[in-house]
């Protein structure tokens, strides 16, 4: 439904020389009144034309009965009732408008689907970029245009761009926190022509944008969205995403409320991981990270240094830094000695300090501490904690704030003021610091979490080389042979799937088929005891149905297992050596941005533990290793295995992702569970491959 627009195509929409407001109103509280206030508040350089037959003037602006009687406007804002929008948009297209914003829309349902198709058709025919319908509008702080009924703070352009599919999130950006400085905010609405991808590209081209915040429910232009994220990575502009719809109940609510079906969260995770998008855990995490990354000063080399006026606060800070993997500044011996001299104590060993020790005037040392810490080459940033929103009578916070100001003026490194909690009820001092360019981070845990995101961004930007990974290392003849076999099969179970994977370079367990007790015994001797005997009758969940026998140590045990199994499941079995190790599952699933590699705990634990992650295929071994760091099974593997064994598993998983990429459109799903990983190596033990041939056959 969406059409791609370049930034140059959008100048008439977001930086218009004139604006017409259809459905303008003199009634306070109406969108048609709010938008006139917003346009005047931001002070656009061009003309504003209220379009309404009911009034001669509104807010000092002369009104026109309709678009045809008004001067031509670059931007037409349609604030009419939903039953008039279609006709008003046709009039806007006929008038020569270069962009439109549509506030309203019918309620979700079949009627709205057909209506949206017609509205999109009008816009496409005129090649008219439309924000909405069902949008709250946008604010372009760089061009001083507010086409919105969410009244913004008329602040100077800043570093944060917010693009949201939630009206509430967009509203909060414009109205809630005067400490934040934005370059651009937009509510995507129903995306008749303009998609989130178009809005991201536009925001990236604004000169002050340093970070982009996304609230995402679904992606309508998958290809364009991937290109926009790649554009952001190329420009070293971090993207911070917040998204709901992780549960069926949440997805149903989104469909009911907005008529927008949530896309696959696995697909988003894989895409975001590849392009270094920060995935915020909560709105507080999202906003705080945007405040931090919107700062014009990037992290320097090294780790985080922090000072605070609380011993308990320092203990919690160290806990949070460990939990989120935030590197602390490793200070030079000379710096350590200077800190000891300032504090008058000897037990200073790190760059995390409590300066409230014994002397009630320790706040007077904050200046020196921040200066010394910021000057050390091992410090990437300095964070100063106190209760900045305390009452003025207390008197401590202003002294720490003054220390932040002086440190900010003496260093090019970022200096952050942070609070212990988010309970800030007298924030005037915090507002002052924000006005002076010092970001305020609310709550210690959230502040430290946002710092972990900043270090992740720094690491991603240091390794980013551009574009998706390219499949390598697969033999052309093996790929051709595998394709021929896959394209004529709806599903390949254990032995066949392992045979295909083995031919493509995946290490697999040696497996032999048998159809009698004698053949099973001979196969066991060939592969070596102890062995596993499994049913080969094309059934799934073999273990639950009695189709697996483990650890068979001799001929008699194999024959007995075969006789029992074949009696109720059928004569065909596979025999393989018994392999022990850590069980990990590797899979491939289809996603809206391409095939995804899935990693999780293996064996029966895959059903019990919510411990999995997704990577866009193909993924390099290095990408696999980083992703495993987010999983309990991955951390266990790295800590318990020799480096060569861990690297071997990463190579195996990467090879599976290459197979997924090469057979895109052929392989629908691939499940290897488990891969047995030990210091002796790693082997795929059981596998299943489903192809699109199954869907074609049905």
What is the CA-CA span between the terminal residues? 29 Å
How large is the count of helical segments?
A: 25
Calculate Rg over CA atoms: 31 Å
Molecular shape? flat
Strand order in space, largest sheet: 9-8-11-10-12-13-14
**CATH topology (fold) name of the largest domain:** Rossmann fold
Outline the low-pLDDT stretches.
250-263
Estimate the strand proportion: 15-25%
Task: Please state the structural category.
Answer: alpha/beta
**Main sheet overview:** 7 strands, mixed
CATH class of the largest domain equals: Alpha Beta
Roughly how much helix do the residues carry, as a percent range? 40-55%
Q: How many domains make up the 3D coordinates?
A: 4
Number of strands: 30
CATH architecture classification of the largest domain:
3-Layer(aba) Sandwich
